[in-house]
Design brief:
The protein is mainly β. The chain is built from no helices and 11 strands. The strands form 2 sheets. Strands 2, 4, 5, 6, 9, 10 and 11 form a 7-stranded mixed sheet that branches. A hairpin with a 6-residue loop joins β4 and β5. The termini are far apart. The model has no long low-confidence stretch (mean pLDDT 96).
């Protein structure tokens, strides 16, 4: 069974940076897969943060464009989310997701597109 394990969350002041990691179990190939990062704050709906296709195409949520970057490390079978210029409104639980069947070039942004989810890592940004 595919497992996704996130790490890298924490507490940071506004303007700071964090890098989230999502390690996939061997049953899922990050290099051949399409994956995404989502976040959910208390009382709010799950929000798409960033997505990446099998061949490296990316999509970002409007609120994080220009500040966040999604990437893959194929050798480590790991997905990353580099978060810069963090704002208090970025505070949320961040989860990575992976999709079983990927159309070439498609970076999916709906939670319902994904088959596998990690447990999440908390990011807290203070002002």
């Amino acid at each position: 069974q595919v497992q996704l394990v996130e790490s890298g969350g924490g507490s940071v002041q506004a303007g700071g940076s964090l890098r989230l990691s999502c390690v996939a179990s061997t049953e899922y190939s990050v290099s051949r897969g399409c994956m995404g990062w989502f976040r959910q704050a208390p009382g709010k709906e799950r929000e798409a943060v960033a997505a990446i296709s099998t061949d490296g195409n990316t999509n970002y949520g409007d609120s994080v464009k220009g500040r966040f970057a999604i990437s893959k490390d194929n050798a480590k079978n790991t997905l990353y989310l580099q978060m810069n210029s963090l704002k208090p409104e970025d505070t949320a639980m961040y989860s990575c997701a992976a999709k079983s069947l990927c159309a070439f070039g498609s970076a999916y942004q709906r939670p319902s597109d994904y088959n596998y989810w990690g447990q999440g890592t908390q990011v807290t940004v203070s002002s």
